[in-house]
Every structure is written in C-alpha cells, then in structure tokens.
Amino acid sequence: MNKSVQTALNNLAVHQPLAGLAIGTQWHPGQGTPLKINSPIDGTELAQLTMASPEQTDAAIDAASAAYRDWRCVPAPVRGEFVRQFGMQLRAHKADLATLVSWEAGKITQESLGEVQEMIDICDFAVGLSRQLYGKTIASERPNHRLAEQWHPLGPMGVISAFNFPVAVWAWNAAIAWVCGDPVVWKPSEKTPLTAIACQALFAKTLADNPDVPPAISSLVIGGADIGHRLSSSPALPLISATGSIPMGRAVAQTVASRLGRSLLELGGNNGMIVAPSADIELAVRAATFSAVGTCGQRCTSLRRLIVHESIADQLRDALLEVYKRLPIGDPTAEGTLIGPLIDESAGHAMDEALSAAKEQGGTVHGGGRVAEGVPSGGVYVRPALVEISAEAPILQQETFAPILYLLRYEQLDEAIELHNGVPQGLSSAILTQDVREAERFCSPSGSDCGIVNVNIGTSGAEIGGAFGGEKETGGGRESGSDAWKLYMRRATNTVNYSDELPLAQGIRFDI
Ligand code: NAD
C-alpha cells in the first residue's frame, strides 16, 4: 500500500484489513463483491476490500432503526455535544483525512484540506443548531387554546454520496441528522471509500468517550448502485439524501417516491457566469479560472458556461488563455500544483468526446488534450479547455465532469439571462458587474433560476452557513446551513385546549 495512505490510515486508527461494513463500532468483512481502490494520481492500487452485500445493508438499516428509538429521546443539546466532540476529532486529524482525500479523489492538498474544514465547520454549525430547533407558537382562533408546532426526529436516514466530495457531503448530512435525532446509514461512492472508512473510525473514537450514545447512529456500507438502491427502497429509511449525477437522482427519486418516502437530491450542475461590460476583468479572470479548473472541473458547482458581453469577450478570452498556459498541472500532493488528475480514464474519455462534439457543432477549442510530461504516469491529466461556441450548440445543455469552459457572447442583459437559464440544470450561477441594477436584477425573480446566485464571485466554493442545492434537474434539495435541518425532522402541530369548553374551529356548531 502507498506509504502516505498507510500512515494516514494508521494515524486514524482505521481497522485493518479494511472491511466493507461498519455498524457503529463493529467492523464486518463484506459479503458482496470485491473492490480494488486505485489512486487517480498514478493508478496504483491503494487498497482492496469486499463490499457489503444487500443483506448486510439490511442489517445496518435494522441497527439504525433500533438506535433511533433511544437517540430520538436524547435532548438535542446533548446530541449536539456529541457532534462537538466528533468535530474535535476531525480537527485533530485534518491533515490525515486530507491526505486520503487527495490520494483517492485526486484533489490538490489545499482543496482536500478545505473539504475537511467544511466537515469541521458543519459540526460547529450543528452544535449551535442543537439549541435552536425552533418551532412556532401560533395565535389560536379559539379561546383558551394553545397552538404550537414541535420538531421531532424523523428516523434513520440513508446518505448516498459522490466521488468528488468523498466526505464533506456526508458530514453536511450526518452532523445535521445527528443533532436532529436521526441515525445515518452511509453509502459512499465506491470510487472513494477510504476516507469514509476513516470517518467511521473517528466516529468510533468519539463513541469511546460517550458510552451512552447508541453506536448504530452511524453505519457505513461500501457498495455500488445496487446497495444505493437497497437503501432507497427501504421503507425503514424515511429520508434518503442522494448526491450524484442526474440519472442516479432520477432513479433514486422514483424508488423513494414509490414508497412515499422523502428524498433530498443534490445532482448535476451546468453553471454559468455572466460577465458584464462594467466587470473588474482581473477579478473575473481569477473567479472564472478557479471555478472552471479547480478540482480539475469536477465540482457540481464548476463553471461550465461563461457568458460575456461582446465588448469585452476577446479581452477576457485572451486573458484566460494566458492564465491557462501557466497553470501548474500534476501531482495534486505536490506544493504549487493547481490542477490534479481526472478521477479515471472514463472521465478523460468523456472530456475527449465532449470536445469532439463541440468541434462538430462549430466550436473553436483552445487547449484540452492529455498532459504526459511532468505528471505522474498512470493518472489521467488534462489541459483545461476553453471553447468559443454559439449559444445554440446542443453540447451546452449537458454537464461534462471535466475542465471545459464554453465561452458565449451577448449584447443585452435580458439575452444573457435567457442564455444563462436556458439549460435543464439549476445549481450555481454568478454575475460579474459593478452595476448595482444588473446585480440586483440577476438576484431577482426575473434573474438567475438557480439555487445559488452569486455576485462578483465565481460559481464554486459555497459556505456551509447557507442552504446548499439547486433547482430543475439539479433536484431541488437543500442541505447544510440555514433551515435545511427541517428536512431531517418531522413537524407536529399541537393544539392544546386548557378550558372546559369545546369550541370548534371555523365557528362550526355541533351540539349533542
Ligand atoms: P454517480 O451518479 O455516478 O454516483 C453517485 C453515487 O450514487 C455513488 O455512490 C453511486 O454508487 C450511487 N448510485 C449510482 N447509481 C445509483 C442508483 N441507481 N441508485 C442508488 N445509488 C446509485 O456520480 P459521481 O460520478 O460519483 O459524481 C459526479 C456527479 O455528482 C456529477 O453529476 C456532479 O455534478 C454530481 N454532484 C452533485 C453535487 C451537488 O451537491 N449538487 C455534489 C457533488 C456531485
């Protein structure tokens, strides 16, 4: 096994040999299919394990259901104290977790550290939230009646996560779910199970100091789409949070809806940025570059479409091409690298296909192609591409999970907003302008139709304090901050009559 990975796993006290199933503190060898985990950095094998079977997944769900009966009655601030302690473990092991994220997802060290920081931040948020699960008191129309709502735990939930945020997305869900009183059964991406195993090990470490916490509030099932389907179809999981591609979300949504469960979907994006004539060009170049090439274009919020006013389009294109020329591409764990590898060969193939299609559709492609020199052999390293293309090109409608930025031109803001909204996805969006009327218009009901609407920053890099998610085919889910917690709880509306009369609502008379 790779030395850095082995050291990180040892520091994190990960149970070895690696197991495909963990129910609380208990690790079980998987009884499903064998899995080899290869690093996108150099293709080397990082580890092997056997994934969980569908029956083992059911066992994890049963254990979560049993844990729920106790956990729901623990006061929310006490649940918050457990999350606080888990957050301290994350702090202590930030560098080790980041090492694993880099080796199995291919992120540069800075972004891997950022991902772990998001986990720490959401724990802090959840601790505060544990004392703020507020319900409303409502004026009753009946005398001597109290009308109020309470928020109660919902039940055990399933989390299905994608490879590109191997741990942050789980933490967004788990930290909130735990303070809300819900146990979590997590199926990480089969491409990135190591960091998930490490998180479960840190959870077990936190449990050691908290003997009253039911261990099965966290379980881990390593598996593929079949195991995701097993979670989605279980009536014992009232909520399924699923992050990934649109086809995956469509499948999960239908399965969960067929049993009338609740789903929280965080699916693909196709994010646009409008650059207006008054924009600060230097800032636009920095914002567009980070959003388009960060994580090698493999963020749901990655910038895909740059919609530039025709008066500055050539200037911005030339400035971007200049920056693109000198972006350091290579080993993501090396100091100074800004672009690491794509996750695997199929991602490289998808990028090649999209660029060929763009050319066929009349696009002019700058950059793209594989990088062979100065990069570790065995990984898929690509040059980011900038593609000048007409707004009608069909390729603009699809998300390609790679660093391809399409450049479109506009004359009027109305036209730019129409182009911007003219795709099936609706995750993140941005406008760069110094004109307050344009900025406010973009944020208004007739502006961007996305879940995330930014002014003078890029499309990627959201903070945990806001509710994160998108509209249209992005799935409509919201997780992380603001009042996203309400999805993890059930609301009970209570009417209490403290009189000896029985007045009926709406003044109805029913004398017996
Ligand atoms: P993916 O859809 O291939 O896999 C995501 C997860 O779903 C994996 O755990 C996978 O095993 C599971 N899965 C696949 N098919 C399933 C099915 N039929 N039923 C149940 N589970 C199933 O996605 P990926 O390649 O890992 O990630 C990239 C995609 O995720 C991109 O489209 C990206 O935009 C999206 N994404 C969205 C967000 C967001 O917050 N909106 C965040 C990260 C990634």
End-to-end Cα distance: 80 Å
Small molecules bound in the structure, each named once? nicotinamide-adenine-dinucleotide
Largest sheet: 7 strands, mixed
How many helix segments?
14
Low-confidence stretches: none
**Total strands:** 23
Quaternary status: single chain
Structural class by SSE content = alpha/beta
Tell me, rounded to a whole number, the average pLDDT: 98
Q: What portion of residues belong to β-strands? A: 15-25%
Helical percentage: 25-40%
Radius of gyration: 24 Å
The global form is: globular
Q: Please list the strands of the largest sheet in the order they lie side by side.
A: 2-1-9-8-7-10-11
Task: Describe the 3D structure.
- By secondary structure, this protein is of the alpha/beta class.
- 36% of the residues lie in helices and 20% in strands.
- The protein has 14 helices and 23 strands.
- It has helices spanning 3-11, 54-71, 76-92, 94-105, 109-129, 168-180, 194-208, 225-232, 246-258, 281-293, 313-325, 345-360, 413-421, 436-443; strands at residues 21-23, 26-28, 34-38, 45-50, 137-138, 145-153, 157-160, 184-187, 218-221, 239-243, 262-266, 271-275, 303-309, 364-367, 385-388, 404-410, 425-426, 428-432, 452-455, 467-468, 471-472, 479-480, 489-497.
- The strands form six sheets. Strands 2-1-9-8-7-10-11 form a seven-stranded mixed β-sheet, with helices on both faces. Strands 14-15-16-13-12-18-19 form a seven-stranded mixed β-sheet, sandwiched between helices. A three-stranded antiparallel β-sheet has the order 5-6-23, with no helix packed on it.
- A hairpin with a 6-residue loop joins strand 3 and strand 4.
- Helix 4 (94-105) packs across helix 5.
- It is globular.
- The chain starts with a helix and ends in a 15-residue tail after the last strand.
- The structure holds nicotinamide-adenine-dinucleotide.
